Amino acid sequence: MSITVKYFAVLREETGKSQDIIQFQQGMTVSDVWRTIMDKDMPTDIKVAVNMEYTRHDASLKDGDELAFFPAVTGG
Q: The domain spanning residue 63 has which CATH number?
């Protein structure tokens, strides 16, 4: 099973790409995918969307989903 993962802003710079297509196991959550890709726990200030709808870090994923990670926005 696969999902598309998109990265925005500084996360795009950190990963060096704008998106990935990754294989995942049934029952994985958004934070499981983050841990797999980034090799660290997901910060609480990261925003996530599945299929263009904001969701929680513990949301389950299914085959064909599009997952997007957004960094916390800061102003100045």
A: 3.10.20.30
Domain count, the chain: 1
In this prediction, residue 66 has a pLDDT band, given cuts at 50, 70 and 90, of very high
User: Bridge-partner residues for 29, per DSSP?
Assistant: 60
Cβ neighbours around 18 below 10 Å, total: 11
**Whole-prediction pTM:** 0.89
Which residues lie closer than 8 Å to 8 by C-beta, 6 or more apart? 68, 69, 70, 71
Alpha helices per DSSP H over the chain:
10-15, 30-38
Phi, psi of 37 (to 5 degrees): -75, -50
Q: Range of 8's domain?
A: 2-70
Does 40 reside within a domain?
Answer: yes
Residue 76 lies in a domain: no
Mean per-residue pLDDT for 44-54? 96
